[in-house]
Structures are given as structure tokens and as C-alpha cells.
């Protein structure tokens, strides 16, 4: 089996790459990344090949078509910074490049497993279901919804093509540190508290999100590889938790007692409440999240403390 992981030097991509390396030691693994937000240190220990290229350039895919044929494509490369307002760049990178990938997948007979986002739902009522509330409020969410529509069109036109899209909710965990300011709030709050500072939250910390640990995201990707399905699936825990609760859990794990430092939200758009309806992923993929927020943060802090 020959597998390509785009964005493989990034957060989710690198975790998927290492899981595949462990699960399928005989597979030929290739990471493709332009290192604009990924980092080589996320790939220390990865034994496959690394291709340095830009997904939005057609020439990238023409060269791959000439040199390779893949059985599976895990497409994780994207602009993931939701504050980027350059609509042309966002759409070219996230949506237009996806057509190049699907065209090659058709030619190769490859399965495609790609990253969508809970950003497609904007501030529509929770719990979010895959077929309702598709009202993104920024161009990032719009670009991901565009990818979903592209995927649906291709699978309707070519039923033999297997395409699985994952609408990730708030993912946190190992190898996200190189995302900088776009890393999870859990990681940001951990850093603040480790530095002896009060954790900063938008007033009044009761915004609720569906936080999903990276191990459960990896589980979903491996299931998608093994199952003979197509479709779009929410990947979360099915539970919404507040930022205040994160601070409480971190205080417990770090043996600290910090009170949040509340301040006004500076963003015109901000998702106040996200919660995934994961029933479709449970039924069709066999997905079952293994980590509660408490368990995920405990495991994550153990890794962070061990590497500090």
C-alpha cells in the first residue's frame, strides 16, 4: 500500500503519519508539505519520504501524476488559521486544490480522506448535524464547506470513488505547538499557567466547545481507511464543555490555583457553542471517542511535562 499524507508535517497530519507507520509497517508512506505552518520536528522518527511542494499549484499534482501512484490520500494540508481574511488565497489553497487531488484519485483509484471543519456550521444551533446549519461566518469555514460540496459532486458522478470528509471540532494534543497562535486553547492556557500567569479567557469563560483529543481523531482516520464508505462525518466527542472547565482541569493537573483573567472578545465572529452530533460516525465508521476532556487533558499534560 502506498499512502500520501498532505500537510503531514502539521498537527493532525503528523499524528496520522506516525499512526500509519505503526499500524502498517510494510506500507510506503509519503508526506507532502510546504512547511508554511508545519515543522520538520513533527516528523522526527518518521521513516517515509518527504515531498516539499505547494498543494495549490497545479504543477505539484502534474509532477506527482508523472512520478507516483497512490492507493490512499490523507489530505490534511490547508490554511487552518481562521483569522486569515485573504479570500482568494484561502479558496485557492483549500478548495481549488482539492479538485486536483480528486482528479488524480480517480486516475489512481485511490481513496481520499480529507479534513473539513466544524467551521462550516458558524453559530447555528447545536448539536450540529452534517446535513443542517451550513452557514459559515468566515472564509475559512466557507472554503471547507466548498470542499464538502466538491467531494459530494465527485462521489455522485463517480460512485467508485471513495471520499471521506471529517468535520473536526476543537482538536488538541501532541505536535500542535508549532501552530503558534492557532494552537488549541487548551495548549495556550497550559503555557500561560506554566509561566505563572493567570489564564486569559474571553468574558466570562462560559463559551462551550466540543473538544476532541488527537488520539480520537487518529482513530477516526484509521477507521476511514479500513471501512468501505464515503461521506462527511462530524468528529468530536458529542459533548460541549466550557473554557472555565478547562482552567479547572488544568489547575488540577498542574497543582495550581489560578483564577481566569477575563477580557472582551476582539473578534467580530466567534463560535460561542459547538457540539457535534457524532451518530453518523458511530454507525457508519464504528467511531467511538475514548477520551473525555478530563482524560485527554491528563494524557496531554503528561506528554507536555515529559517533554519540558
Q: Care to describe what's here?
A:
The chain has nine helices and 13 strands. The protein has 308 residues and is an alpha/beta fold. It has two domains: 2-171 and 212-237 and 277-285, Rossmann fold, CATH 3.40.50.720; 173-209 and 239-274 and 291-307, UDP-galactose 4-epimerase, domain 1, CATH 3.90.25. α1 packs across α6 (214-226), α3 packs parallel to α4 (139-157) and α5 packs across α7 (243-254). The radius of gyration is 19 Å and the shape is globular. The mean pLDDT is 95.
Notable traits:
single chain, 308 residues, alpha/beta, Rossmann fold, UDP-galactose 4-epimerase, domain 1, 7-stranded parallel beta sheet, two-stranded parallel ribbon, 9 helices, 13 strands
Give, in spatial order, the strands making up the sheet with the most strands: 3-2-1-4-5-6-11
| Derived structural class | alpha/beta
Largest β sheet strand count, sense and barrel closure: 7 strands, parallel
Instruction: Report how far the terminal alpha carbons are from each other.
Output: 37 Å
Unreliable stretches (pLDDT < 50, length at least 5) are none
Shape type: globular
Count the strands?
13
Number of domains: 2
Order of helices and strands: EHEEHEHEHEEHEEEHEEHEHH
